[in-house]
TrEMBL record:
GO terms for molecular function: carbohydrate binding; isomerase activity. It comes from Aureimonas ureilytica. One of its GO terms (biological process) is carbohydrate metabolic process. This is Aldose epimerase. InterPro entries: Aldose_1/G6P_1-epimerase (IPR008183), Gal_mutarotase_sf_dom (IPR011013), GH-type_carb-bd (IPR014718), LacX (IPR037481). Coiled coil: none annotated.
Length: 291
């Protein structure tokens, strides 16, 4: 395995590895690291989710009545991508279907990740292409984990997510990794209060929230803030481990885990994306550092 490739400007730098096309570092001009460094609490940084987000019943995918093994969040995060570009401020990688992938997901696909740094912003563009002859059903998502607290000496409870627009007052509830009903969340106006206890019931899933942006910040504290925006994605997950892991995941998705009790053909899974043969679709998320 080669070393992660670095891209950057004076204001911001990022590192990306070929395994999983995963972002492994995000540092500002002062060298402050904002990405979770894959500690024992959770061994990942920012996995790419494809061709599912969440789980399937029995960890199996059904296509035309045939069962294929497919575990949580899919196989892209554990696959080795091919480098397409290694520039100073931009890098691109691609994963194409193979004999190995078709044993778990019997569809032709191309999944491209492009990372680009400009001033104080990292832009990540995910492109899904269908080079096959039949419709491609899938879900795709980002799963970046950011340092929480944003700086030493600040309580986790001093942080908040500030939505650009009214914050949602409820989220989809999860049972065993599947959607079941709704749960209320501590939102006031544009602000969602954060605490480890908020994730005792697993992730917050804001299904169908649409395109938007949030600011992850600790008001009044001497700490930078992060603004995360997304386009093309229509769902949002927010997650941490309630046992005190020092990270917060802000996750734009196109597709979610299915409802509890659903079990059917993958093409019929609620929330899936569908690409016609020869079609491509683009999903963009950004993170900017301020302060």
């Amino acid at each position: 395995m080669s070393e992660p490739h670095r891209i950057g400007t004076i204001g911001l730098s990022a590192r990306i590895k070929e395994d999983g096309a995963e972002l492994t570092s995000l540092r500002d001009r002062e060298g402050r690291e904002f990405l979770w460094q894959a500690g024992p609490e959770w061994p990942r940084h920012a996995p790419v989710l494809f061709p599912i987000v969440g789980r399937l019943p029995g960890d199996r995918l059904i296509v035309d009545g045939q069962s294929y093994p497919l575990t949580q969040h899919g196989f892209a995060r554990d696959s080795r991508f091919e480098w397409l570009e290694k520039g100073e401020t931009r890098a691109r990688l691609v994963l194409r279907d193979s004999e190995e992938s078709r044993a778990r997901f019997p569809f032709a696909f191309e999944l491209e990740l492009a990372y680009e740094v400009s001033e104080d912003t990292l832009t990540v563009t995910t492109t899904v292409r269908n080079p096959g002859t039949v419709s491609l059903p899938y879900a795709v998502g980002a799963h970046p984990a950011f340092r929480w607290p944003l700086a030493e000496g600040i309580a986790k409870e001093a942080h908040e997510l500030r939505f650009e627009g009214a914050a949602p007052v409820s989220a989809c509830a999860l049972e065993g990794g599947f959607l079941k009903g709704e749960r209320s969340v501590p939102a006031v106006g544009e602000m969602l209060e954060l605490s480890p206890e908020l994730f005792a019931g697993d992730a917050l899933v804001f299904g169908g929230i649409g395109e938007g942006a949030v600011r992850f910040e600790a008001p009044g504290a001497e700490a930078p803030s992060l603004r995360v925006s997304w386009q093309g994605f229509r769902d949002l997950g927010v997650w941490s481990k309630p046992q005190g892991a020092p990270f917060l995941c802000i996750e734009p998705w196109a597709g979610t885990t299915p409802p509890l009790g659903w079990d059917g053909e993958f093409a019929d899974k609620p929330g899936n994306e569908h690409l016609s043969p020869g079609e491509a679709r683009f999903y963009v998320w950004t993170v900017s550092v301020a302060g």
